[in-house]
Write a structure and sequence with these properties.
This protein has about 270 residues and is an alpha/beta fold. It has two domains: about 200 residues, 2-enoyl-CoA Hydratase, Chain A, domain 1, CATH 3.90.226.10; about 45 residues, Lyase 2-enoyl-coa Hydratase, Chain  A, domain 2. The chain is about 50% helix and about 15% strand. The protein has a six-stranded mixed sheet, sandwiched between helices. The longest helix has 20 residues. The protein starts with 11 loop residues before the first strand and ends in a 10-residue tail after the last helix.
Length: about 270
């Protein structure tokens, strides 16, 4: 395991400990953690490296009251980008978010306040989303005269379905609290601090064998992109590797010896 504290970044803060749980913190609170081009490059750097550095799970959280206000609208305005400039920028967003979704390391997003536009695209690239009572989700692209460019058409549609996503984009509809949970924008809605809950979940996930987490946090996404026939084939190959790993043998032996925990409701 390498030193997770050695990143030198302007817009993100990265820290980790011996458990392999790494915190990646959006650190532009004065701009509501809006995603400028530099932040996207830093996300690419961090999420390219963390899996190879031995990270066991990641908590993605934010400084300030808001998780992320999406695309840096001021930078976009000032840069006065041409279509090809923005197209290439979107490819960098995809690079960052694909590194997250397909990286094989569980990412738990600790949400609060605004999770809007590109902020929702970022959150939907994590594997688990934890919201609090202040968290709200929206796709204000339509009102801004924009369109999603960071994967919402894939990942947000995957979470809430095409019809809800289109409604969010056309009307600016905001989802929060129980309604957000019910439509699938978050998997946890808590009264307390989402950072703490996300850390708790990350530590739980970090106890799984890394190979199992790799299959869960990479394989499922890849298989969703395949035909059913190819997905079934890939699942078999992956299960062949994962389900015969030394770590699973030990755990199966513990079950057979009746020393392993049983699955019980609370
Ligand atoms: C920003 C941004 C931003 C804040 N880009 N600078 N996203 C949006 O449409 C959301 C735009 N933001 C907001 O609606 C609000 O800022 C918030 C609800 C998130 C927060 O409100 P508030 O009252 O706490 O803050 P504020 O006063 O609006 O903003 C504080 C500062 O953050 C201010 O900068 P300052 O230098 O004047 O102090 C704002 O300019 C700055 N700020 N949000 C740049 N988004 C790949 S395509 C993706 C397309 C999209 O993401 S579209 C959705 C864009």
């Amino acid at each position: 395991m390498q030193d997770f504290n050695a990143f030198t970044l302007e817009n993100l803060t990265v820290s980790g400990d011996d458990s392999g749980v790494v915190q990646v913190v959006l650190s532009r609170p004065a701009k509501r953690n809006a995603l400028n081009a530099d932040t996207i490059e830093e996300l690419i750097e961090v999420f390219s490296k963390l899996p190879r550095m031995g990270a066991r799970a990641v908590v993605l959280r934010a400084e300030g009251d808001h998780f992320c206000a999406g695309l840096d609208l001021v930078e976009h305005h000032v840069e006065d980008r041409r279509p090809e400039d923005f197209m290439h920028l979107c490819l960098r967003w995809h690079e960052a978010f694909n590194k997250m979704e397909y990286g094989g390391v569980p990412i738990i997003a600790a949400l609060k306040g605004a999770v809007v536009g590109g902020g929702l695209e970022l959150a939907s690239s994590a594997h688990v989303r934890v919201a609090d009572q202040s968290t709200y989700f929206a796709l204000p692209e339509g009102q801004r005269g924009l369109f999603t460019g960071g994967g919402a058409t894939i990942r947000v549609a995957d979470l809430v379905g095409k019809a809800r996503m289109i409604d969010m984009m056309l009307t600016g509809r905001v989802y929060k609290q129980k309604e957000a949970m019910d439509v699938g924008l978050c998997q946890y809605l808590i009264d307390g601090n989402t950072d703490d809950k996300a850390m708790e979940l990350a530590h739980l996930a970090a106890q799984n064998p890394a190979l199992s987490n790799f299959a869960i946090c990479s394989g499922i996404s890849h298989m969703q992109n395949m035909s059913a026939l190819d997905a079934a084939y890939s699942e078999s190959v992956l299960a062949g590797i994962v389900n015969t790993q030394p770590a699973s043998r030990e755990r199966l032996e513990a079950f057979a010896n009746k020393t392993a925990a049983r699955v019980r409701p609370d």
